[in-house]
What does this fold into?
Amino acid sequence: MSALKKYQGIFPAFYACYNAQGEIDPQAVRALTRHLMDKGVTGLYVGGSSGECIYQSVEERRLVLENVMAEAKGKLVIIAHVACNNTADSRALAAHAESLGVDAIAAIPPIYFHLPPYGIAQYWNDISAAAPSTDFIIYNIPQLAGVALSGALLKEMLKNPRVIGVKNSSMPTQDIQMWRDEGCIVFNGPDEQLLSGLAMGAVGGIGGTYAAMPELILKIFELFHKGEMAAALAVQDEVCHIIYKMCSTRGNMYGVIKEIMRRSGGPDIGGVRAPLVQLVPEDLPIVDECVSMIQAAVKKFC
It folds into this structure.
């Protein structure tokens, strides 16, 4: 199967799943995997920003992926984000992911210290070498990583035959066109511009809010591929308004999403890990408003 066909679709970014003590909850991980599988998504992006990866140990990240794969292997396309802020741990996670049979691994560039492009390339190639039979996806998120993917760096990375694409979370949709021009597949990152990203040639989307409203995200993808652009835009507009509302709380957006899922009959996967900010009582009316907005949009469009 070609990479274009295999990775074409909608990939919710998987959330961290905690018990009451704030530890990884394997049963909650499995419940969330089943929940999203039942929604009809193409695959999952595990261990990225939405998974609170920078606040978890190597052992915790292994535990999460093992339980996702126990439910999803052979049923969903799984992309495992394996980057840590040192090469050795990143390579260990890459090798572990390959041993579990994931479809692809992904990595942001090293954060904090700003490496030169050849240093970033070495880091990514070292990670890829630890999973020599697995596709590799570059994760471009300059607003958080502090460094942006360049055309020259992408060209260098494409010398590695395992590098197949970019998860592009930069805001300019022009980046999608430029990376696609280099011959790789591109996933749209910013959820607020999924439709724009698809129009610029993205094969699909990987998004942090998708799991809160998968029906709406899947509908955008469906309508785009039917050529029903006005209808797709109407759904995208509503998704944007829901996201703006999610971001209006004092607590962290992922805490908002987890509470939305709970109040909508989805699995209870806990809160967020410090230093991310937990929801406060004043946030709950906003959460309820988000639930109502999602339900109304699903009824209207799906």
